[in-house]
Amino acid sequence: MDKKITIAIDGFSSTGKSTLAKQLAKHLGYVYVDTGAMYRAVTFFAMQNGYINADSFDKETLRNSLSFIQLQFKFNPDLGFAEMYLNDVNVETAIRTIEVSNFVSKVAEVSQVRAKLVEQQKEMGKDKGIVMDGRDIGTVVFPHAELKIFMTASATTRAQRRFDELQQKGNDVTYEAVLKNVEERDYIDTHRVDSPLVKAEDAIEIDNSYLNREEQFQVVLDLVNDSTKTI
């Protein structure tokens, strides 16, 4: 049996990182961790408590409230993947809205938030056999991962995908608003001081602008197979 490895998937928002990571984890029998869901849950908590809105962001109060935030992934056998729980409440649907998307990059800029979540993420991956996606997995969380993927696509392509997804879920949103959100998140993610989104030197870049899910999965699965043969 091939040894288990750590697979780190980073990249821009709406590149399908989570979809790919779920496919890989299911196929390989690995644990899947959606770090974006963790940051979204903290953002949702901040929104619920009035710490962040369109006009202000009370970072200090959020920092002081981090000890009151409990995050858990609970496997849903009907869906085939784990859902995000915030303080024992299922928030999987609530954290996927455009409203949360508008604030999540700002919350992720807070160093204390990142430190809290990165600590949890490292603990989750200590036994390998894990697929984790996010913004700083290959650079900060698992700098020694055996396989690092960096996913990208044009902003317009990503916005269209995100818009279609939100429409299917019944969200009342315009394409222009989604594109603006994608571009703003790109800027914040790549310009923040703490753990900005950058491609790790040893990461393999995949531009999936013209790849469907099946093609993308096969490309990465071949990389996984190559990586497990060399350890």
From TrEMBL:
<keyword id="KW-0547">Nucleotide-binding</keyword>
<dbReference type="Pfam" id="PF02224">
    <property type="entry name" value="Cytidylate_kin"/>
</dbReference>
<dbReference type="GO" id="GO:0016301">
    <property type="term" value="F:kinase activity"/>
</dbReference>
<keyword id="KW-0418">Kinase</keyword>
<keyword id="KW-0963">Cytoplasm</keyword>
<dbReference type="InterPro" id="IPR003136">
    <property type="entry name" value="Cytidylate_kin"/>
</dbReference>
<feature type="domain" description="Cytidylate kinase">
    <location>
        <begin position="7"/>
        <end position="224"/>
    </location>
</feature>
<keyword id="KW-0067">ATP-binding</keyword>
<feature type="binding site">
    <location>
        <begin position="11"/>
        <end position="19"/>
    </location>
    <ligand>
        <name>ATP</name>
    </ligand>
</feature>
<keyword id="KW-0808">Transferase</keyword>
<dbReference type="InterPro" id="IPR027417">
    <property type="entry name" value="P-loop_NTPase"/>
</dbReference>
<protein>
    <recommendedName>
        <fullName>Cytidylate kinase</fullName>
        <ecNumber>2.7.4.25</ecNumber>
    </recommendedName>
</protein>
<comment type="similarity">
    <text>Belongs to the cytidylate kinase family. Type 1 subfamily.</text>
</comment>
<dbReference type="InterPro" id="IPR011994">
    <property type="entry name" value="Cytidylate_kinase_dom"/>
</dbReference>
